[in-house]
Amino acid sequence: MSHAGLILGLPELEVERVDRNDAIAVYARPKKRPCCLYCQHPRNRIKATYERTLKHTRQGNQLITLYLKAPKYHCPRCGRYFRHRFKGVRPRFRASETFRLEVFEAHDGGATQCKINKTHAISPATVERWYQSFCRQRLSEMSNRPCPRVLGIDEHFFTRKRGYATTMVDLKRNKVFDVVLGRSEASLERYLKALPGRDNVQLVVMDLSETYRNIARRYFPQATIVADRFHVVRLVNQHFLKA
Asked: What does the pLDDT read at residue 106?
């Protein structure tokens, strides 16, 4: 049995042939018929077949293009029609999710739109549209994250125009949880009120700022406030130097 579909990251495909020229063309079809999307009936008949052309990924310097035979099914039980859905490929899209993610990571890593236009054969406008789409998706995922149990809070200078920002860190995983503009209670009030899982925070680690201390008492009532070791040692050293 051919493992080409598994190598491509689309295991339900049965590869019929592969043509290699300036690019790699892969011709494939589904291995089996799916159940009805509406009534889950297992036996459906193929009404028609059309071809989907998708950009998938790159192998070395060559772009892989998929030519998929996509059947249109008819369910004898409910009488409805539906098209074959491939895992990792959205309906009506001309590129797989693997290819879209590859473009996003390349652009996010510093590759310019003009460079991606040459390497992936897509327009700069498409690069920008996909990049914005993935940014919105990741922002949505981040906004629904619960607050970490061990939370570190500190301020840092952001820009001259916008001033300071507050950095919140998941100290148990050693990862930045979020960065919010502002360092006063008034500027952070709206964000903190909407923060999910505030009551689950057990420890809040911060500097000796009275502002952050008041914020922790108000918005993280179940948490124990711990002074950051770095700021405590610096304060002790300052007193020794004055003496």
From this structure: 93
Residues 143 and 130: their CA atoms lie apart, in Å, by 20
Q: What is the pLDDT of residue 7?
A: 60
Per-residue burial over 171-207, b if 16 or more Cβ lie within 10 Å, else e, is beeeeebeeeebbeeeebeeebeebeebeebebbbbb
Q: Which of 42, 72, 67, 73 is nearest to 55 (CA)?
A: 67
* Angle, in degrees to the nearest 10, between helices 113-120 and 124-143: 110
pLDDT tens, residue by residue, 23-47: 899 999 999 999 999 999 999 999 9
Report CA-CA distances (Å) from 122 to 137, 159, 225, 238.
Answer: 21, 35, 52, 58
List of residues 6+ apart from 141 with CB closer than 8 A: none
Determine the pLDDT at residue 6.
Answer: 58
Cα angle at 76 between 73 and 81, to 5 degrees? 35
Q: Which CATH class is domain 150-242?
A: alpha beta
Of 92, 86, 69, nearest to 34 (Cα)? 86
The CA radius of gyration of the chain, in Å to the nearest whole number, is: 27
E strand segments, the chain: 13-20, 24-30, 45-59, 62-74, 81-83, 150-159, 163-170, 175-181, 203-206, 224-227
Question: Which segments of the chain have a pLDDT < 50?
Answer: 1
Q: Can you give the residue ranges of every domain in the chain?
A: 1-94, 102-143, 150-242
